[in-house]
Design a protein that fits this description.
two-stranded parallel sheet, about 50% helix, globular, about 80 residues, 4 helices, alpha+beta
Length: about 80
C-alpha cells in the first residue's frame, strides 16, 4: 500500500517580506509545539490544532530541529513559492 502524499500548496507573492514573515511565524509555531509537547495552555492547543489542520503529525515534529539554520520550513509544509 502506498501512502498518499500531501498536496503541495503553491503561493504567489510579490513582497519578500511577506514570505519571510510567513516562514518566521511557521517556524515559531513548530518551535512552540516542539519545545513542550505536553503543554496544555490554550496557545499550545491552538498551535497543535493548526498543525493537525495541515495534516502534520505531532510525532513527525520530534524528528526535526527547527532551530537548525538549514531547516526549510516551506519544504516541511510542502509550500512552493512563486514570485510574481
Amino acid at each position: 500500500m502506498r501512502l498518499a502524499r500531501r498536496p503541495c500548496v503553491k503561493i504567489q507573492y510579490r513582497d519578500d517580506a511577506l514570505r519571510a514573515h510567513f516562514c518566521k511565524n511557521a517556524q515559531q509555531l513548530l518551535d512552540f509545539v516542539q519545545t513542550d509537547p505536553n503543554n496544555k495552555t490554550m496557545s499550545a492547543l491552538i498551535a497543535r490544532k493548526a498543525l493537525q489542520y495541515r495534516h502534520v503529525r505531532i510525532d513527525r515534529i520530534g524528528d526535526i530541529d527547527v532551530r537548525d539554520p538549514t531547516f526549510d520550513v516551506s519544504h516541511f509544509f510542502d509550500i512552493e513559492w512563486s514570485k510574481v
